[in-house]
């Protein structure tokens, strides 16, 4: 359900559904309204980031680099939009292989930040390859499910290969370690599976597998601080100066915003630096403190519109590859928003998942812009047939 | 192509309802939690958030200054650099480790620091060293700079108490030290926190509420590192009030010099109004040593010293008054009509009473004695007989009227009431019947009678001024730092026992002859310019035995206490002096010269200060 459909005067020879809507070029199907909404989110994100970092010269530099990077990305998105998304169907495995390779690189050449091997450096700019694998994973899975169509839902024997596909980045990321991003890969995989449909039996089996794997993960894969975070979710006052500190400060910041907030740049938690990671993980708390319930709801509503639009792109794509990919991309957006905001509101554990367009971070910005650009790419080619 | 399209539209992917509803539910959950936090819990969380960003600090108040009656400073403050440890700036695991290292490096007692760490629960900063040296200060500041903003050692400037006169009148002034647990529980000290200085003993304790001043408070907005951002509210501290004492420090110094190395006490009162002119307890200590945490060895040394430097000998130690008490026995006898001043008794050196032999200090006896001679020669037998006839209850009544057996009410904490026995007292406390022999002992100030030198001074001041018992008073005036007088003492007359002036005159004449006639026991207190009246006393730690030993032959603890109580000028007294020298021998040979020397200094100082200066407020 695109908010705005460009009408063309071509006559439709195929189907009533497409009558009068065939485009000659991708540009003709460009969704201006959605571009406006996404631009609004990006601008809000930039303004909010400024509030989160202002007052500290070191962090203010982050703000300027973020603005710069967004402009660069906007330019980079043009070719991404113009290349037909169907190209990725043929190159999906290649792209996935390359990005997974980049996941291995940090262990040898990368550097550790806060004890985790997440970063690689390209031409002086550092990136987190694990952000990009989310997109290539989606492409990869889309291609797989297109090649192995199933009208009554997938049996477990057909899911073996995709499970192996997702386990590659999942395991690599979990030993980095980056629990949040690894979980995100799993969630995206799960979402796509749900979208393409799986036999009830298979769902049951996967659930059992998860139940078995969870305690194993808890005792062997998780580090002490990560366990603390999960426990804190249950009781934020557990250790007010330790793991509970983040969440306690976040709740105080959010709650003290009340209905209309304290006003832009007026958040005391922000100003006094009580809130840790307020420019990345807890950027939503800054927003909620300064803009209150009203601001928080507006931003949530905009995200809701974007994700719902993404679902509609999936529903209306001209081919199955575009459809699955659009859904996968939308689910990336959805899980990011839900986990990040959930973290700030103490619904989810603190796992370090960024809020699209709001959090500081070069890789996360370009990834999220790629996600929406690819969605537009699919959307605008809905009526283009060759 | 069309077929392909229609084909896939039948697959499960086209079940939009399912994923739209998941999306809606997820966002409703987020919005609901947002609503709950911001609308329902908003006010509460806002309050919490405000509180966390505001720290309240206490601004210490400068303690009041203590002056003597001529404006000499006895106690004041100087800045001290104190070292604080901030456990809350460190991670839990690092704390103990860091504290240990810091203690070794900066020579701090680790055990004390550990205890404070426990009581601070890792949340509050606590003091680990007081008055650190400049070298140490420089060392810590350099560390601070290299380590960065979260270096958990912090220097704070606080004030420390100094006593310029060092050991002079230490027992009267008392000292300041960190507040102890016992005091912290009292409602009087509810504003104090562990580590705060508080007056302990002496007038530092008695006048704590005036001296301490009022703490200031400062509300400061801080950031997550506790670094102050801006001051929100400030309530300045109010300095404590100053005290002006009745005490003359030069006279006190003279008393200390006269006392020398002996253990004992000197008290000088003004008999006209009860003001304390000088007090000295020997040996003394320096009150400043309590401003720092005191080491166990030093403390044990003070406790083990057999001369007990910490005990206040003129208020807290009790002694038998010895012959100085005969004045009370004489007054009781005269007033009750038992003693006829001219009647004589024979002293043979002892009096056989019942089966016991009561000895006089003169082995060969004094011969015929009347009241005057009995006092001048301090004849024990005369007073045995007179005391026996007067009876203990009458003696006790007069003793109590003159202040024995009850607190003098002096404004120094910790005085003892002593014992002025009578028949009832013995039955109540010892569950024994009063024996006639007990009366004989009490009559010469031995046996159950227990007094402090201050009580003797109060009694002699009363004898000197015609029978008025004043409350001794150390502090004369309390004034604000600006000079405004808050409280000014007027003499506090406690009792005025009804004594016949003629009888008093008899006593005073006898006391004058004790000092001024050649055969008197107190001739060593005689002054050339002023007529002194006084009474010696030699109170026995062990009773007089058949074999009389010279004091040098006895163990220190068994030697007699030497007393001398006097006032001058005899006709119009303006100073009463009591000297007690512990385990030193005869009152006439040891205590009288000391008293004489104090009196001499008093009159010399008075001459120097002519015209007589009144009390000066600085």
Provide an overview of this structure.
The complex is a heterodimer of chains A (386) and B (618). With 386 residues, chain A is mainly α. Chain A has 13 helices and three strands. Chain A has helices at 32-53, 57-82, 86-108, 129-147, 156-174, 179-196, 200-221, 224-234, 243-256, 268-271, 283-316, 320-344, 362-380; strands spanning 111-113, 116-122, 125-127. Chain A has a three-stranded antiparallel β-sheet with strand order 1-2-3, covered by helices on one side. In chain A, helix 3 packs antiparallel against helix 4 (129-147). The longest helix of chain A is centred in the last third of the chain and has 34 residues, at 283-316. Mean pLDDT of chain A is 82; it is low at 1-17. Mean pLDDT of chain B is 85; it is low at 1-12. Chain B is elongated and about 135 Å long. The N and C termini of chain B lie far apart (109 Å). In chain B, the strands form seven sheets. In chain B, strands 2, 3, 4, 5, 10, 18 and 19 form a seven-stranded mixed β-sheet that branches. The longest helix of chain B has 25 residues, at 16-40. Chain B is of the alpha+beta class. In chain B, strand 2 and strand 3 (73-85) form a beta hairpin. Chain B contains 21 helices and 23 strands. Helices cover 37% and strands 20% of the residues of chain B. In chain B, helix 13 packs across helix 15 (380-390), helix 14 (371-377) runs parallel beside helix 20 (501-516) and helix 15 packs across helix 18 (436-443). The interface between A and B is large, with 55 and 46 residues.
The number of distinct β-strands of chain B equals: 23
Structural class of chain A: mainly alpha
How far from one another are the termini of chain B? 109 Å
Main sheet attributes: strand count, strand direction, barrel closure of chain A: 3 strands, antiparallel
Can you write the helix and strand succession of chain A as a string?
Answer: HHHEEEHHHHHHHHHH
**Strand runs of chain A, count:** 3
Strand order of the largest sheet of chain A: 1-2-3
| Percentage of β-strand residues of chain A | under 5%
The tally of helices of chain B reads 21
Query: What structural class do you assign from the helix and strand content of chain B?
Result: alpha+beta
Shape of chain A: globular
**Proportion of residues in helical segments of chain A:** 55-70%
Which oligomeric state applies? heterodimer
Mean pLDDT figure of chain B: 85
Runs of chain B in which pLDDT lies below 50 for 5 or more consecutive residues are 1-12
- Shape designation of chain B: elongated
């Amino acid at each position: 359900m695109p908010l705005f459909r460009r009408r063309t005067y071509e006559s439709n020879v195929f189907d009533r559904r497409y009558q009068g809507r065939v485009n000659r070029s991708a540009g003709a199907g460009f969704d201006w309204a959605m571009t406006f909404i996404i631009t609004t989110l990006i601008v809000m994100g930039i303004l909010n980031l400024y509030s989160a970092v202002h007052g500290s010269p070191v962090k203010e530099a982050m703000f300027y680099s973020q603005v710069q990077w967004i402009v660069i990305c906007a330019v980079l998105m043009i070719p991404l939009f113009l290349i037909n998304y169907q190209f990725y169907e043929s190159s999906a495995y290649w792209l996935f292989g390359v990005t997974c390779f980049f996941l291995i690189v940090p262990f040898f050449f990368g550097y550790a930040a806060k004890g985790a091997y997440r970063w690689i450096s390209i031409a002086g700019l550092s990136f987190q390859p694990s952000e990009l694998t989310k997109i290539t994973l989606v492409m990869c899975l889309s291609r797989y499910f297109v090649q192995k169509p199933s009208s009554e839902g997938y049996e477990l024997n057909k899911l073996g290969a995709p499970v192996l596909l997702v386990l590659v980045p999942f395991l690599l990321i979990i030993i980095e370690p980056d629990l949040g991003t690894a979980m995100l890969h799993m969630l995206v995989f799960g979402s796509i599976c749900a979208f393409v449909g799986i036999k009830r039996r298979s769902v049951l089996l996967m659930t059992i597998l998860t139940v078995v794997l969870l305690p194993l993960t808890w005792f062997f894969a998780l580090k002490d601080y990560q366990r603390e975070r999960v426990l804190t979710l249950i009781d934020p006052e557990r250790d007010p100066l330790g793991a509970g500190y983040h969440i306690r400060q976040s709740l105080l910041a959010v709650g003290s915003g009340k209905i209309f907030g304290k006003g832009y740049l007026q958040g005391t938690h922000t100003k006094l630096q009580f809130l840790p990671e307020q420019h990345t993980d807890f950027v939503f708390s800054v927003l909620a403190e300064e803009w209150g319930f009203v601001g928080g709801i507006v931003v949530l509503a905009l995200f809701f519109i974007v994700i719902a639009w993404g679902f509609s792109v999936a529903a209306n794509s001209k081919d199955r590859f575009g459809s699955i990919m659009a859904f996968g991309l939308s689910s990336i957006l959805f899980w990011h928003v839900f986990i990040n905001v959930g973290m700030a509101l103490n619904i989810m554990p603190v796992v370090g998942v960024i809020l699209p367009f709001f959090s500081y971070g070069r890789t996360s910005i370009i990834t999220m812009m790629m996600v929406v650009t690819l969605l537009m790419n699919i959307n605008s080619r809905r009526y283009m047939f060759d | 192509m069309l077929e392909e399209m229609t084909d896939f539209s039948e697959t499960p992917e086209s079940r939009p309802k399912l994923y739209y509803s998941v999306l809606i539910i997820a966002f409703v959950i987020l919005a609901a939690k947002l609503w709950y936090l911001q609308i329902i819990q908003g006010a509460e969380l806002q309050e919490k958030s405000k509180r966390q960003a505001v720290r309240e600090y206490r601004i210490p108040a400068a303690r009041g200054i203590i002056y003597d009656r001529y404006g000499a400073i006895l106690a004041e403050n100087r800045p001290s650099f104190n070292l604080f440890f901030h456990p809350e700036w460190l991670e839990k695991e690092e704390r103990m480790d860091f504290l240990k290292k810091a203690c070794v490096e900066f020579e701090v007692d680790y055990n004390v620091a550990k205890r404070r760490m426990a009581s601070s629960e890792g949340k509050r900063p606590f003091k680990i060293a007081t008055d650190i040296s400049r070298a140490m200060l420089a060392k810590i500041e350099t560390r601070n700079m290299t380590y960065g903003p979260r270096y958990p050692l912090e220097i704070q400037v606080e004030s420390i108490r100094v006593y310029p006169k060092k050991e002079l009148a230490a027992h009267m002034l008392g000292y300041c030290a960190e507040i102890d647990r016992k005091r912290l529980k009292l409602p009087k000290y509810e504003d104090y926190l562990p580590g705060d200085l508080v007056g302990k003993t002496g007038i530092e304790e008695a006048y704590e509420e005036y001296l301490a001043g009022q703490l200031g408070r400062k509300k400061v907005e801080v950031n997550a590192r506790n670094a102050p951002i801006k001051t929100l509210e400030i309530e300045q501290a109010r300095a404590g009030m100053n005290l002006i004492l009745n005490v003359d420090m030069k006279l006190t110094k003279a008393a200390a010099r006269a006392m020398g190395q002996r253990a004992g006490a000197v008290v000088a009162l003004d008999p006209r109004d009860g003001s304390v002119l000088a007090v000295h307890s020997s040996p003394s200590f320096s009150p400043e040593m309590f401003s720092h945490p005191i080491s166990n060895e030093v403390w044990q040394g003070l406790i083990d010293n057999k001369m007990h430097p910490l005990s206040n000998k003129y208020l807290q130690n009790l002694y038998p008054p010895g012959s100085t008490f005969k004045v009370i026995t004489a007054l009781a006898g005269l007033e009750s009509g038992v003693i006829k001043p001219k009647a004589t008794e024979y002293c043979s050196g002892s009096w056989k009473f019942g089966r016991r032999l009561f000895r006089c200090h003169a082995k060969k006896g004094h011969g015929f004695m009347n009241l005057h001679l009995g006092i001048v020669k301090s004849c024990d037998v005369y007073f045995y007989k007179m005391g026996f006839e007067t009876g203990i209850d009458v003696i006790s009544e007069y003793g109590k009227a003159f202040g024995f057996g009850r607190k003098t009410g002096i404004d120094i904490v910790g005085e003892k009431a002593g014992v002025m026995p009578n028949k009832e007292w013995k039955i109540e406390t010892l569950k024994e019947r009063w024996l006639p022999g007990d009366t004989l002992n009490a009559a010469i100030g031995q046996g159950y009678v227990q007094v402090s030198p201050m009580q003797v001074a109060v009694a002699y001041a009363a004898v000197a001024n015609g029978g008025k018992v004043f409350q001794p008073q150390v502090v004369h005036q309390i004034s604000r730092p600006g000079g405004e007088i808050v409280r000014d003492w007027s003499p506090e007359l406690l009792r005025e026992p009804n004594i016949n002036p003629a009888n008093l005159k008899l006593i005073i004449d006898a006391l004058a002859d004790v000092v001024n006639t050649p055969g008197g026991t107190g001739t060593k207190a005689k002054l050339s310019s002023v007529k002194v009246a006084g009474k010696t006393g030699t109170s026995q730690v062990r009773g007089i035995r058949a074999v009389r030993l010279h004091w040098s032959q006895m163990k220190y603890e068994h030697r007699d206490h030497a007393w001398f109580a006097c006032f001058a000028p005899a006709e119009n007294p303006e100073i009463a002096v009591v000297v007690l020298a512990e385990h030193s021998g005869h009152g006439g040979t040891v205590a009288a010269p000391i008293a004489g020397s104090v009196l001499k200094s008093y009159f010399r100082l008075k001459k120097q200060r002519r015209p007589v200066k009144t009390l000066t407020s600085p």
